[in-house]
Amino acid sequence: RKASALTAGTVGPFVVVTTAKGVPQSGDRTLLVYAAGSSACTATPSQPTCVDVLLPKGTGSDVFFSTGPCSGGVGCAADDRPVLQVLADLGSRYSATVTATLIFRCDKTLCGGGSIRSHPLLVNLDPAYPVGAPGSRALLQASPACGSKGVMDGPDGHCVDYVQSRRDGTGDTYLYLLIIRDARMSI
């Protein structure tokens, strides 16, 4: 079959994925998903953010991770910061007191200065629209602080647990995002 010729034109917005990873579903079993493979992810100066996920009630589907550039005015603090996305069918397994926890790790070159609270975690839990898609209800918005350790009391199904959040011995920041639905995030 003969290849057709391409013509110049305009294209609507789309998201470029830098990395992607899938993990098989776990049913009702606890699932600890490491974005980096078999061990916890490590934020580095060249890849300053990563995320690991703790799913104590499992999932009803495979888990999909992706990273890509934050561009096109989707609400990131800076266009060169990555957007991390975690997609899974959490169904009705999770509640305000039994949450999925995303451990967002940020290298000290990006998140080392100031208090932990001075680095807001930008989140979108709107499953109908990828970050930056036309008509998206909420692009990336700062996740509110949780009122209590381990309790998701954010009005949109997510909050940052600053009681659990911390810095490690090297100065990297670990932010604990409690969710009850899929998430896209940046810092």
Total domain modules: 1
Low-pLDDT residue intervals, each spanning 5 or more residues: none
What is the 3D shape? globular
SS content category: mainly beta
Mean pLDDT: 76
DSSP strand tally: 12
Oligomer: single chain
Q: Percent of residues in beta strands?
A: 25-35%
Succession of helices and strands: EEEEEEHEEEEEE
Helix content: under 10%
Distance between the termini: 47 Å
List the helices and strands and how they pair.
Elements: E1 19-23, E2 31-34, E3 49-55, E4 63-69, E5 82-87, E6 100-106, H1 108-111, E7 122-124, E8 141-142, E9 158-160, E10 166-167, E11 173-179, E12 183-186
Describe the structure concisely.
The protein has a six-stranded antiparallel sheet with strand order 1-4-5-12-7-8, with no helix packed on it. Strands 2, 3, 6, 9, 10 and 11 form a six-stranded antiparallel sheet that branches.
Labels describing this entry:
187 residues; mainly beta; six-stranded antiparallel sheet; 1 helix; globular
